[in-house]
Amino acid sequence: MKNNQECSDLTLNQPVSVILSLNQRTNLYQKFKSRIVHNPYLDRTLVSFQGNKQVPFFWFKYREGFSERLVTYLLQTLKPQPGILLDPFSGVGSSLFTASTLGWQTTGIELLPVGIFATQARIIAQKINIESLNIVISELKKINFQNYYDKSFAFSHLAITRGAFSSINEEQLVGYISYCHNFVANQDIRTLLIYSVFCILEDISYTRKDGQYLRWDVRSGRSKGKNEFNKGEVLSFEDAIYRKLKQITSDFNISPIQLDLFGEQLKLQLTDQKSSLVKNLEPKIHEGSCLDILPTLPENSIDCVITSPPYVNRYDYTRTYALELAFLGCSEEKVKHLRQQMLSCTVENREKRNYLQDYYTNRGRYQDFLRIDSTFKEQAALQEVLTILDNYKKEGKLNNKNIARMVHNYFYEICFVIYELARIVKSGGIIAMVNDNVRYAGEEIPVDLILSDIAESFGLKTRYIWTLGRGKGNSSQQMGDHGRTELRKCVYIWEK
Ligand SMILES: C[S@@+](CC[C@H](N)C(=O)[O-])C[C@H]1O[C@@H](n2cnc3c(N)ncnc32)[C@H](O)[C@@H]1O
């Protein structure tokens, strides 16, 4: 349902049962269509990590990350006066760091230790003594890492990461980490050096992050399936770490001319690193699930939310970032627990309804729980989609029977997030959310419209549903079965 024309085209050749089953989504489209606006400024690179490729301090490739330009654009367009910003799915902290250099006080919530470590490392990087760091790095360049191997710092693999590195790369990695722990006294420098390894794990491994899972290079001996995958060059540990350290030090030693290219906020951050301004505006970060943490935040306390939740697309961050989780010492049990705590976006996620009911009841907020629960049940377009998916499940039309449960749980949980955001944002406050629409078994789920309608049930007003230049295609299998149509990829702007 890209536009009105497409809506009516869609109904022309369909049997009556299908037309009826589209009714609620068509009505919802009619409700919001004047607010669905193509924003030519927003393109795919702006909304993704790609937009940060040349930006200093982006040392870790977090594919789900925002670009700084997007956050700057949103703030300058929607809330030019700095205040208090929250990102309840803060990832590696792109919105927090960008906003803080524009004068905002920022708070992030992130579940995975991957994003938490990246955020903490960047906070440390902003305060580091560059001369001392350069001295330690020049010492590091003289040593043979294998000579420092200490088995107490051995890489504690998860079942899904075993065999990820060649033995020489793993030995050097452990030797380097051992050296950092045993010989680098300054804790901040040590953390930054360890973070440098964290940033190169994929480069030195036989794996490639690929949306839903980790792909394995044929050289690992672990690759599965008919099509053998070769990721190309696997960097040696030494090459990769020297490159990363060079990138880090050159970002610190960036010239004033280069700074101009990156804009005012970065200039402030880099040239005035030790100023009290930057220190005061250091992002605050909560580690945990926003489903637990948002209900603890005071109401009417936030001026702006810029966020991007996981999409309902089956991407399992605990698998794609398994190397990084293992590097940070997460056990199998911990990883399983994190997977279940995530906003449901994989077919493995189990329902959190009972948990949420108990949690709200124990906080004396049972009435809020009931309100959120009934808003979910009363969202007609959502219930239409869920009924269809349940039928498809019974008819064996879904390529995984748990897709219906995942979609159900995703919307159920995100209702809680939106309710809490509506509660804690101040009157006049803005919420900007980036998300993609999806399609399962040919059935389009207009995530943008459903979430905007839920937001309105909780007292927010939808200012715009900004669509990006090009929508997102389908998986090749869906394209084959149902023909290619574009799905909206959007930034929704809600106001209290
Ligand atoms: C699309 S990414 C956001 C990336 C972020 N905008 C950035 O620039 O790095 C979604 C993030 O939500 C996190 N997440 C998933 N479930 C969560 C939960 N229940 N509470 C908090 N964070 C969660 C994921 O780990 C992931 O980092």
CATH class of the largest domain: Alpha Beta
Radius of gyration: 24 Å
How big a fraction of the residues is strand? 5-15%
Question: What is the number of helical segments per DSSP (H or I, 4+ residues)?
Answer: 23
Whole-number tally of structural domains: 2
Structure report:
With 496 residues, this protein is an alpha/beta fold. The chain folds into two domains: 4-111 and 265-314 and 338-495, 3-Layer(aba) Sandwich (Rossmann fold), CATH 3.40.50.150; 127-253, no CATH class. 49% of the residues lie in helices and 13% in strands. It is built from 23 helices and twelve strands. The protein has helices at residues 4-12, 16-32, 44-47, 68-78, 94-101, 113-127, 130-140, 167-183, 187-198, 237-252, 256-262, 264-271, 276-280, 290-293, 317-320, 322-327, 332-341, 353-362, 366-378, 380-394, 403-424, 447-457, 476-482; strands at residues 36-38, 84-87, 105-110, 207-210, 213-216, 284-287, 302-307, 425-436, 438-440, 443-445, 461-467, 489-495. It has an eight-stranded mixed beta sheet with strand order 1-11-12-8-7-2-3-6, sandwiched between helices. Strands 4-5 form a two-stranded antiparallel ribbon. A two-stranded antiparallel sheet has the order 9-10. Strand 9 and strand 10 form a beta hairpin. The longest helix has 22 residues, at 403-424. The protein is globular, with a radius of gyration of 24 Å. Residues 1-19, 255-262, 272-279 and 471-483 have low confidence and may be disordered. S-adenosylmethionine (SAM) is lined by residues 62, 64-66, 89-92, 94, 109-112, 115, 289-291, 308-310, 317, 341-343. S-adenosylmethionine binds at residues 62, 64-66, 89-92, 94, 109-112, 115, 289-291, 308-310, 317, 341-343.
